[in-house]
């Protein structure tokens, strides 16, 4: 038969279509979700790995076997040969069975092969003779395969914290998983891990006295458990514990073997060059002074020994050097240039030693950590070889000091970040609880990722506990940053984290409590509540929280923590027995301890304040402070002695370094009075209501503003010890009281009455188009101010409190949607802009879950160019616009609160430009230098405030505009002070109409 060319062409086209259809059908079939039964009454599944696989693959298989046992009480076999149904895991090039599947084209591995720590999970039907189906896990390298095996544990609902926080998986007699073919990796960050640091009070004591008593130290048994956790979290690096209380990592030969078994890369901190622990290993008697200018040969021999010892193990070598522990390098000269030259010589000699012991088969990255004074050397010209990773650091309080500029981003060695969620040092430690806001952690690491710091991420987690959540978040981001594009990804992540541990029915409520705690701890960490400092250690100080103005900041904080603690107590009663140990460790202890640390100090501040007025409640507040102190001791004892049958004995210490903040506060006593009476204290007044005061203004609450719906308090308090009944009445029905009567006794020595106004009943002033020119809000004319009173009576005595309301009608405010002056100031939360203008290179975005206002606003991308010329701002800068209204005119101070971030690199800044109405923009700079007093104040408050003066030309409507100068600056709040601002820690409540 003869075919024409046209017929052949048609046939070829048809054949190609059939091929394409078959390919598409195969693709759909292979990508379809399939169910794989692991344990059932009719299924016997095995785990199959090759004998030649690295040890970490065997370890991961045993962990999966253990996880399945913990769920089903059924132990499945691990073997080297396939069975009818099996989980087959192997590394390309190592596993004979995996290689056979590749050769027979039963699996495609182009998306895995030659990748870093990548793995693929898929179902293969009839992969071998007499094998019905296999769940195949194929890894690009040993860690990739191990991560893939442990991914099955994740799918089964086993938490990475199953051992370290006693998180129990749900029991089932039968288990199966749904599989859709998927490739995982490559990771966003190449090396990802933690630094075990400041271990003196927790991890070391727990290991030495409990978990690893046979060694009496943190050793291979403890590290094996830490490495297991890292594997489950898809991490690959650790900087081991290095204080003098702990044996140096390499002093126990088994440590490095265990690390290699678990495929964990060992690195060391900024103070430990060349995998050495100077703090523990350097012997002054036999080795002399640890200084390179006078003792270089001894130091080089020390480095040489460690490089030789570790040549066949994956290691990460820190170059350069500092002094012993966390101190500057010792040199005779103060000349920076000479110090730089010496440090360059150190690096040169270290690299020569590493070249001597080079092993091409074992990755050995080199890093340089410009921490503290080493950053100063780098900024002053220190040359670091091209292939060395620059590891940038935060300022110890969560704000990254510097990142790679565009030129540095081209370096072959790349960059990384060393970040703290635990710290010992000035201005104050935070070693006890995890108080770093997770959204700040996300924001700073997102910034680092944006500036290509993607080669190494290390998190200082102290003793691991209680840093479980932030450790998990940090390593999940490092694994796949694409899943964390926006700030709200943190909330989704934590809800999923809590759901996996405590069920969907509890996760939303728990997340809400954590968010509230995050917000409170952001404004003041629990370890900072004594207003003391370290280096040198100072005694507890007076609080900066006001108890007089703005609703009583101390009282508001007490109320917020009461709500948290009451909810946690209720939830703890609902948690099933199997989850109670995990709940105590991950929820109850951290949240209740934070609350009790606050109660301890807040009630002490209350005591000291009310004792000046000789209130009987001074005793009550002293007792509450003492009870909070005791609660911390009791909960810590329960943690150590009772949880999981003493498994965690010695792990938790509630007073690291025995700093003043951890001590029982000193409280004041009050004089005994013979005749029982009652007193009143009014918001805005330091002294109590006093019949001897003639000035009626002193007996009056602050003015209630119709536009801001003000609320104020009156404290009714007991003087003496006898019970008193009290009642109140109002002169006008538009005055509303939270409570109109009650009693006082020694167990209930005071009552706070909140006063609000029913504005629908308040007489209105005559409508005006605008506020009268020059209207002084502090001396309100009678036509705008309506006066009334509250009477409070007890024991045949009546006291009158004045009430003044400001309720004018300005027609221009009828449709006004903005911010209104209240008592001489305007307060704006930055995320509540009236409108915004997009910039040519950057736009403002809202970050949720961070800042004093709960949301901040930032110009992104951070890589956008700064705009410093005033003339260009209106045309090029992203801009925020805020409409506000004043009843006054004259000089005003504009305060901007930002987060205390640093400039990205030399040449960039931390600036906004601000203008009111048509005035020329003023540049406001938030940059701090080194470890200055300003920086110390900023990091203790998680806040940087700068101000400038301007003129409000007339009362009425105005517009505040904030222009981006530098991208990435996080704006939190704005306060416009026309003379009414009072001393406080926070800004007053937002004055939004």
CATH superfamily of the largest domain: Glycosyl hydrolase family 115
Uncertain parts: 22-29, 772-782
- How many domains? The number is 6
How are the strands ordered across the major sheet? 11-10-9-16-15-14-13-12
Pfam families: GH115_C, Glyco_hydro_115
Keywords: Hydrolase
Protein name: Glycosyl hydrolase family 115
GO molecular function: hydrolase activity
Write structural notes for this entry.
The chain has an 8-stranded parallel beta sheet with strand order 11-10-9-16-15-14-13-12. A 6-stranded mixed beta sheet has the order 3-2-4-6-5-8, with helices on both faces. Strands 28, 30, 33, 35, 36 and 38 form a 6-stranded mixed beta sheet that branches. The chain has 6 domains: 28 residues; 153 residues, Chitobiase/beta-hexosaminidase domain 2-like (Chitobiase, domain 2); 294 residues, Glycosyl hydrolase family 115 (TIM Barrel, Alpha-Beta Barrel), CATH 3.20.20; 140 residues, Methane Monooxygenase Hydroxylase, Chain G, domain 1, CATH 1.20.58.2150; 137 residues, Sandwich (Immunoglobulin-like), CATH 2.60.40.10; 159 residues, Sandwich (Jelly Rolls). Helix 11 links the parallel strand 12 and strand 13. It contains 21 helices and 39 strands. It has 993 residues and is of the alpha/beta class. It comes from Pustulibacterium marinum.
């Amino acid at each position: 038969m003869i075919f024409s060319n046209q017929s052949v062409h048609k046939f070829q086209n048809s054949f190609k279509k059939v091929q394409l259809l078959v390919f598409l059908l195969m693709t759909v079939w292979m990508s379809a979700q399939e169910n794989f039964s692991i344990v059932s009454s009719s299924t016997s599944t095995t785990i199959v790995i090759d004998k030649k696989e690295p040890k970490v693959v065997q370890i991961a298989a045993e962990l999966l076997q253990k996880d399945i046992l913990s769920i089903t009480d059924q132990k499945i076999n691990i073997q080297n040969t396939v069975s009818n149904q099996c989980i087959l895991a192997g590394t390309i090039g190592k596993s004979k069975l995996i290689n056979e599947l590749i050769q027979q084209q039963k699996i495609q591995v182009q998306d895995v092969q030659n990748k870093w720590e990548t793995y693929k999970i898929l179902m293969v039907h009839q992969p071998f003779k007499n094998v019905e189906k296999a769940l195949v896990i194929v890894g690009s390298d040993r860690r990739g395969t191990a991560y893939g095996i442990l991914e099955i544990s994740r799918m089964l609902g086993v938490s990475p914290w199953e051992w370290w926080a006693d998180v129990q998986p749900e029991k089932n007699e039968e288990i199966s998983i749904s599989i859709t073919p998927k490739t995982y990796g490559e990771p966003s960050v190449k090396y990802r891990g933690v630094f075990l640091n400041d271990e003196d009070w927790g991890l070391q004591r727990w290991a030495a006295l409990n978990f690893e008593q046979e060694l009496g130290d943190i050793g291979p048994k403890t590290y094996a458990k830490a490495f297991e956790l890292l594997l489950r979290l898809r991490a690959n690096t650790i900087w081991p514990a290095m204080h003098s209380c702990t044996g140096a990592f390499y002093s126990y030969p088994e440590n490095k073997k265990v690390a290699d078994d678990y495929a964990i890369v060992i690195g060391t901190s900024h103070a430990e060059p060349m995998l050495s622990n100077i703090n523990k290993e350097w012997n002054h008697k036999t080795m002399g002074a640890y200084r390179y200018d006078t003792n270089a040969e001894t130091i080089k021999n020390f480095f040489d020994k460690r490089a030789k010892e570790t040549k066949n193990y994956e290691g990460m070598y820190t170059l350069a050097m500092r002094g012993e522990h966390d101190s500057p390098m010792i040199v005779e000269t103060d000349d920076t240039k000479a110090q730089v030259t010496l440090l360059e010589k150190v690096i040169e000699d270290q690299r020569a030693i590493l070249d001597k012991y080079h092993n091409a088969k074992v990755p050995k990255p080199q890093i340089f950590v410009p921490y503290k004074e080493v950053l100063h050397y780098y900024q002053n010209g220190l040359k670091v070889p091209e292939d060395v990773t620059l590891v940038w650091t935060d300022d110890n309080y969560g704000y990254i000091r510097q990142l790679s500029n565009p030129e540095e981003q081209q370096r072959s060695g790349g960059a990384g970040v060393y970040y703290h969620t635990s710290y010992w040092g000035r201005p104050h430690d935070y070693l006890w609880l995890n108080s770093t806001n997770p959204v700040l952690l996300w924001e700073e690491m997102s910034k680092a990722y944006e500036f290509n710091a993607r080669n190494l991420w290390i998190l200082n987690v102290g003793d691991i506990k209680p840093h479980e959540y932030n450790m998990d978040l940090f390593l999940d981001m490092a694994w796949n940053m694409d899943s964390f594009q926006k700030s709200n990804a943190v909330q989704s992540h934590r809800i999923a984290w809590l759901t996996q541990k405590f069920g969907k029915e509890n996760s939303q409520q728990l997340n809400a409590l954590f968010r509230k705690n995050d917000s409170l701890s952001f404004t003041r960490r629990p370890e900072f509540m004594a207003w003391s400092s370290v280096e040198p250690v100072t005694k507890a100080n007076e609080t900066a929280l006001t108890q007089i103005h703005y609703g009583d900041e101390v009282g508001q904080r007490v109320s917020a923590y009461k709500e948290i603690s009451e909810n946690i107590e209720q939830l703890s009663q609902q948690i099933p027995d199997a989850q109670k140990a995990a709940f105590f460790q991950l929820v109850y202890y951290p949240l209740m301890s934070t609350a009790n640390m606050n109660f301890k100090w807040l009630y002490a501040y209350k005591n000291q304040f009310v004792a000046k007025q000789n209130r009987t409640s001074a005793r009550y507040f002293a007792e509450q402070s003492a009870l909070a102190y005791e609660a911390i001791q009791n909960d810590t004892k329960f943690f150590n002695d009772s949880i999981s049958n003493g498994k965690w004995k010695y792990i938790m210490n509630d007073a690291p370094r025995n700093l003043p903040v951890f001590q029982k506060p000193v409280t004041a006593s009050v004089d005994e009075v013979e005749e029982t009476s009652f007193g009143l204290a009014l918001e805005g007044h330091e002294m109590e209501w006093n019949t001897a005061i003639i000035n009626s203004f002193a007996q009056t609450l602050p003015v209630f503003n119709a536009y801001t719906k003000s609320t104020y308090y009156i404290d009714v308090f007991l003087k003496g010890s006898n019970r008193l009944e009290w009642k109140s009445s109002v002169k006008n029905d538009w005055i509303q009281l939270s409570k109109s009567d009650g009693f006082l006794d020694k167990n209930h020595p005071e009552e706070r009455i909140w006063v609000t106004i029913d504005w629908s009943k308040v007489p209105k002033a005559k409508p005006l188009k605008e506020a009268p020119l020059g209207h002084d809000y502090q001396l309100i004319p009678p036509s705008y101010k309506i006066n009334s009173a509250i009477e409070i009576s007890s024991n045949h005595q009546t006291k009158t409190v004045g009430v003044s309301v400001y309720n004018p009608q300005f027609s221009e405010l009828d449709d006004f949607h903005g911010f209104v002056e209240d008592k001489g100031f305007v307060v704006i939360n930055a995320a509540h802009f009236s409108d915004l203008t997009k910039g040519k290179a950057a736009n403002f975005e809202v970050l949720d879950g961070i800042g004093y206002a709960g949301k901040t606003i930032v110009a992104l991308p951070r890589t956008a160019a700064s705009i410093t010329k005033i003339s260009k701002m209106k045309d090029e800068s992203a801009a925020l616009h805020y409409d506000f209204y004043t009843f006054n005119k004259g000089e005003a101070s504009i305060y901007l609160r930002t987060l205390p971030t640093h400039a990205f690199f030399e040449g960039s800044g931390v600036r906004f430009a601000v203008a009111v109405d048509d005035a020329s923009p003023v540049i406001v700079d938030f940059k701090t230098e080194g470890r200055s007093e300003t920086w110390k104040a900023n990091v203790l408050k998680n806040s940087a405030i700068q101000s400038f003066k301007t003129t409000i030309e007339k009362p009425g409507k105005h517009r505040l505009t904030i222009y981006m100068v530098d991208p990435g600056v996080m704006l939190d709040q704005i306060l416009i002070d026309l003379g009414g601002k009072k001393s406080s820690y926070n800004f007053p409540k937002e004055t939004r109409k």
